[in-house]
Amino acid sequence: MESIAGAVNDFRQLDLLATGNTGMHRLDARAKVLVTLIFILAVVSLGKYELAALFPFFLYPAVIMALGNLPIRHIARKVVVVLPFALMVGLFNPLFDQTVLIRLGPLGISGGWLSCASILVRSALTVGAALILVGITGFPAICQALDQLGMPRIFTVQLLFLYRYLFVLTEVGGRTARARELRAFGNKGLGLRSYGSLLSNLLLRTWLRAERIHLAMLARGFTGEFHPHRITRFGSREFLFLAGWAGVFLLFRLVNVSQLLGAIVTGGIG
Amino acid sequence: MSHHIVEVKDLRHVYSDGTEALRGVSFRITHGESVAIIGANGAGKSTLLLHLNGYLATSQGAIRIGDFPLNKATLPEIRRTVGMVFQDPDDQLFMPTVFDDVAFGPLNLGLVGDEVEERVQGALARVGAGHLRDKPPYRLSGGEKKRVAIATVLAMSPDILVMDEPTSGLDPFARRQLMALLRDFHHTRIFTSHDLDMVLELCERTIVLHEGEVRADGPTLEIFRNEALLAACRLEKPFAMQGCPVCGG
Fold first, then answer.
1. What letter does residue A112 receive in the DSSP assignment?
2. A269 touches chain B (CB under 8 A)
3. Residue B31 and residue B33: Cα distance in Å, rounded?
4. Dihedrals φ, ψ of A129, to 5°?
5. DSSP letter at B3?
6. What does the alpha-carbon distance between residue A172 and residue A133 come to, in Å, rounded to a whole number?
7. pLDDT confidence of residue A1
8. Mapping DSSP to helix (H, G, I), strand (E, B) and coil, where does residue A70 land?
9. How far is CA A262 from its chain centroid?
10. Are B136 and A213 an interchain contact pair (Cβ–Cβ within 8 Å)?
11. What ipTM was assigned to the predicted interfaces of this complex?
12. Which domains does chain B have, with CATH numbers?
């Protein structure tokens, strides 16, 4: 069950990245959350055939990863994990939508292929942006920002616990899976039959452990609020960050920058 | 300094499945005492500890911590007063870095900025773990985890330190280190343990629990000399008080 252990480690690494101290990390979390939201909205709201217009949006993750000192490979690896799911969504587009929209010499590309590719690129962009947000902000600070932005506290605390529970679940799951594997002798063991009790066992064990962790939190004065140790305020830097990126996204959304660039290079304008 | 006193009176606890875990436990621990609570598995030690900071509600009986009776209104103050270190440090360390973990308590107490920094530094230095502050807890060794878990509690400046099996799972060196650390504390200390040699060294008083009742309460040495009592409670003398297995001396 290397994969489970690996997944936990990856998550933990993302958590650790958030303890960095670059300019990006020091920005108030609210600004970063808002910029990410606007980014996702801009990307998602583009028409389904507008593949070319999506590419300029890669500027944002590239710049933030560079400024925030995030390892590209790490983020990319995680994005790749999500892509198969996106592919499932767009899988049948090429079959249903066969109108040829673009001709590259003798090769005609149908609308179905375009929209399928656009779904993939969009998921890469949005998932990447969300991961980058966690990497430069940290999950507790994101929840705090959502709270300050008006999300009901019960949801933000729920989100935080969900995030922590993920670690508990994968840890206990990894251990259970190892115990099963060691006694399955390379076969499927008892096959599907053993999984029922294994899963219920997993639920009960994580439940107990989560309860013990909650107890430890209560013992240290937890009252339903998480306090980030970095206190930030929404100042002029945050305003610039928000306004700047919002402007850029609006430009990318309204003007097809790829086409424009292509036109300039090939002398189409002038 | 009455706020370091722990008083338990006729404490009973019945779990929802009908198990009677505690059947009328009473004792009084005064300021600065170091007390061990020992007993066989299932004697009620953990249940008792869980009552001391109000995690389990009493079925019957009363607990007083310092000047306050333990009830819903006094719970926050009592949780600050009683620092509880759990048996498994993995349950106690849940934040991404050691610093975050130690800062969790002080932040909940409403401290900010430099005060938090000071508390964290102080607590980590106290347990000799200052160099671990930026590490993620899951990368620490067992001994380091235990020390950091103690630091998370010390950062809240508790008056009373309650520890469940402090030496379990530690190698001999880490165990020695931890014992030296615990000996230096001047808090009121309550330990549960099966490590009777540790009890002999660190606690002047011992309470023996057996099947949910206090079977004996007195000076540690006296209790460990009472072989009939130990045998009846499924315990035995600490190794330091047993004869040498090689020379028989």
1. H
2. no
3. 6
4. -65, -40
5. G
6. 27
7. 44
8. coil
9. 31
10. no
11. 0.80
12. 2-240 (3.40.50.300)
